[in-house]
Amino acid sequence: MNAKPYVLSHAPRFYERLISLYPAAYLAKHREELLQNFEDLERDVGSKKWFWMFIIGDFIKSIFHEYMHYLNHHRRAQFAVALIIVLAALATWQIVTLQKAHSSFANYAAFRGCAQITGESDSSGTCMLANGQSITIVKFNGRWFLQGDLPACMVKIGSFCLLDQP
């Protein structure tokens, strides 16, 4: 029985870049072992598909485990993750609130602090603020805005605006 000769591929260089995502302390301790195991598996496994499924699955599981271990032992990292989560929650809340406010005339009037609606149509409306000032609200691109405060599109793809300019 003749064994196929092992041909060196570009895969170890890719894997080396992939494992650079591990925490530095873990990588310093296990880098050579990871690379050697990778080369041994690549040489011995017949199917590239199953080989890469195993490598990627194992990588995802182990990198998650290593970062959880890292977080358990580093207070600054825990604080940073908690801060990111709080900021993401606040940003999400702000986005949801603004989307709801801009979704209808009544919502936008309430958002602007209108005490009384004095007129409304399909594309505009007026209302009185608590201080007696009258404001006009207009529909623009399916959303409601204060007249004179319409957004300008900063990033547009076709007719779709990805990012409104404040």
Binned, the helix content reads 40-55%
Structural class: alpha+beta
| Largest β-sheet summary | 4 strands, antiparallel
How much of the residues is beta strand, in percent? 15-25%
Radius of gyration: 28 Å
On the 0 to 100 scale, the average pLDDT is 87
Total of helices: 5
Roughly how many Å apart are the termini?
Answer: 72 Å
Strand order of the largest sheet: 1-2-3-4
The shape, in one word, is: elongated
Q: Residue ranges: pLDDT <50 for 5 or more in a row?
A: none
Number of strands: 6
User: How many domain regions?
Assistant: 2
Order of helices and strands: HHHHHEEEEEE
Describe this structure as you would to a colleague.
- The longest helix has 29 residues, at 75-103.
- Helix 2 packs antiparallel against helix 3.
- The chain has helices at 11-19, 24-44, 48-72, 75-103, 105-111, and strands at 114-120, 124-129, 134-140, 143-146, 152-157, 160-165.
- It is elongated.
- The protein contains five helices and six strands, in the order αααααββββββ.
- The protein folds into two domains: 11-73, no CATH class; 105-166, no CATH class.
